[in-house]
Amino acid sequence: MRITVLPGDGIGPEVTEQAVRVLQAIASIQGYRFEFEEHLIGGTAIRLSGSPLPRTTLDACLASDAVLLGAVGAPEYDQLPAHQRPEAGLLLLRRALGGYANLRPAVSYPAIAACSPIRTEIGSGADILIIRELLGGLYFGEPRGFSGSNESMSAVNTMRYSVEEVERIAKVAFEAARGRRNKVTSVDKANVLETSQLWRQTVTRVAQDYPDVTLEHLYVDACAMHLISNPRRFDVLLTENLFGDILSDEAAVITGSLGMLASATIGGDVGLYEPVHGSAPDIAGQGIANPFGAIASAAMMLRYSLELDQDAADIEQAIEYVLEAGYRTPDIAAGTGGYVANTAEIGELVSEAVTEVVDMRHAYHAV
């Protein structure tokens, strides 16, 4: 199985290395093999090749079974035109791979519930899957850009959605809900935006094909409030590109840290898997970055691109075991006690825990 690895910028190489380590561990246990091939993206690619997404990188991604990304973003390139910045490489890659559905789980782990700013009795037990439409809306709509100059300058972005775009992302959400708790919350701003009115109408119609799944609609501002005040009310949360970007980052408070959030981008020919956190250049190279999100992203890769559901579940269980054993990175150590480990130690601990999880499962089935 060919995996293109894009370490990227900042802490990206550090967390990606640990995700690859855990993938190698599960492959060794189960008797299959990954072929990992590293390529450049983002600021690192600009520095070494002059482009945020070199052609060799794109070709490798398109030829692989899945893509594992670390992080993109380098402040030294912030003054470049938008299409030349590191983030432009990621947007181009997403469009080229064709993945329109971005899946972002937000889970409250009991072992680190106390490091969330949400009171434990409110956030504990929350388990949300945010499904964000990724190729439409304000991020890709045309026309866009600047006009005029100086004090008379203006800018425009276009939010645009078609019925087809809404239908296909809605189906992903309803199918996902069937494997969870059979509830979809669709988020929009239908009291103001025509795109949201189309969104709500289309999602309501698609829901008729899923009578076993409960559908509710929420305005985005109300949803933002409920994510903090009552996160356990949500199962699958479905929304468009901009709202999904904002709400999924807000959901990080449920987990206690952005470093805990994984993501999968599916729907195209090749899936893209990346932790939600950014490149965090202020802590890069210090060995304190949280690799749990990257490792969980690797687990999602096994599930969605390689159809290795049990192996994905084993990695997710191993993450929970390591947290329950008291191991933390600095961002999730406050108020939870335990041992503060560095990035590499966490990767090693999860790899060892994967072996224990698989052994226990085999022993259980043998009995």
How is the topology of this model organized?
Layout lengths: L1 E7 L3 H19 L4 E4 L3 H8 L5 H8 L3 E6 L14 H12 L3 E7 L12 H4 L3 E7 L11 E3 L6 E3 L6 H16 L4 E6 L5 H14 L6 E6 H10 L6 E4 L1 H10 L1 H4 L8 E3 L4 E3 L18 H13 L4 H16 L2 E2 L10 E2 L2 H24 L1
Parallel strand pairs: 1-2, 1-3, 3-12, 5-10, 8-9, 8-10, 13-14
Antiparallel strand pairs: 4-5, 4-11, 6-7, 11-12
Helix pairs in contact: 1-11, 1-13, 2-4, 6-7, 11-12, 12-13
Q: Approximately how much beta-strand content do the residues carry? A: 15-25%
Name the CATH architecture of the largest domain.
Answer: 3-Layer(aba) Sandwich
What's the tally of helices?
Answer: 13
CATH superfamily grouping of the largest domain: Isopropylmalate Dehydrogenase
Give the SSE order as H and E letters: EHEHHEHEHEEEHEHEHEHHEEHHEEH
- Extended strand count: 14
Helix percentage range:
40-55%
Low-confidence stretches: none
Alpha carbon gyration radius: 20 Å
Query: Going across the major beta sheet, what is the strand order?
Result: 2-1-3-12-11-4-5-10-8-9
| Overall tally of structural domains | 2
Keywords summarizing the entry:
367 residues; alpha/beta; Isopropylmalate Dehydrogenase; 2 domains; two-stranded antiparallel sheet; 13 helices
Question: How would you characterize the overall build of this protein?
Answer:
There is one protein chain. By secondary structure, this protein is an alpha/beta fold. It folds into two domains: 1-109 and 257-367, 3-Layer(aba) Sandwich (Isopropylmalate Dehydrogenase), CATH 3.40.718; 117-255, 3-Layer(aba) Sandwich (Isopropylmalate Dehydrogenase), CATH 3.40.718. It is 43% helix and 17% strand. The chain is built from 13 helices and 14 strands. Helix 1 links the parallel strand 1 (2-8) and strand 2. Helix 12 crosses helix 13. The protein is globular and about 65 Å long. The mean pLDDT is 95.
